[in-house]
């Protein structure tokens, strides 16, 4: 009986998380554009809508990579996996809503990866301690793949920062010449 309740709770959390996630993506698109007044408000909203739609359509495999790469589900029981996902969804809702209210940009993908890593780590640690398992804890968490995902995140931030700075420099240089 409690499994049906858990599925209902997960469904409700998924709806709230989807709403908060989409509003986070929209806020990431809108904050700097509206603040700098680069275009009329209606134009900014249209471009942001296209960006959110493109992100939703093209991000099909990203969450699958994060889910399969961070922890190894075969080492967890069904109850533990459900705890991990409830913890991830609650944390995601609180974290993204907090950042949105402050007007700060944050990445939904980065938050999901680190939430999965933290929840999987703690639940795996508690489960192995509770069961007195002799298996090494490193088997529960896929540290090599999680490290690759995290380094990919930091590398993409570095590339985005560098290319953005270069584009701004070139644009300002061209505008000075005009």
What does this structure look like?
There is one protein chain. This protein has helices at residues 2-36, 41-58, 62-70, 78-102, 108-131, 143-177. The protein has six helices and no strands. α3 (62-70) runs parallel beside α5 and α4 runs antiparallel to α5 (108-131). The termini are far apart. It is an all-alpha fold. It has one domain (2-177).
Number of helices: 6
Domains (count): 1
Q: Any idea what the radius of gyration is? A: 20 Å
Low-confidence stretches: none
Shape: elongated
How many E strands? 0
The arrangement of helices and strands along the chain is HHHHHH
**Which percent band covers the strand fraction?**
under 5%
Main sheet makeup: none
CA(first)-CA(last) distance: 71 Å
Provide the residue-averaged pLDDT.
82
Please state the structural category: mainly alpha
């Amino acid at each position: 009986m409690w499994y049906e309740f858990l599925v209902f709770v997960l469904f409700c959390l998924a709806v709230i998380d989807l709403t908060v996630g989409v509003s986070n993506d929209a806020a990431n698109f809108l904050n700097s554009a509206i603040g700098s007044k680069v275009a009329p408000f209606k134009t900014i909203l249209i471009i942001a809508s296209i960006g959110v739609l493109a992100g939703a359509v093209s991000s099909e495999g990203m969450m699958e990579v994060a889910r399969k790469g961070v922890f190894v589900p075969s080492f967890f029981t069904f109850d533990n996996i459900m705890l991990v996902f409830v913890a991830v969804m609650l944390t995601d809702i609180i974290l993204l809503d907090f950042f949105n209210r402050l007007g700060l940009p944050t990445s939904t993908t980065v938050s999901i990866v680190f939430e999965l890593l933290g929840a999987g780590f703690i639940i795996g640690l508690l489960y192995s301690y509770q069961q007195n398992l002799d298996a090494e804890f490193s088997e529960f968490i896929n540290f090599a793949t999680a490290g690759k995902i995290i380094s990919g995140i930091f590398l993409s931030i570095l590339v985005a920062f560098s290319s953005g700075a270069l584009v701004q420099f070139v644009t300002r240089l061209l505008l000075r010449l005009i």
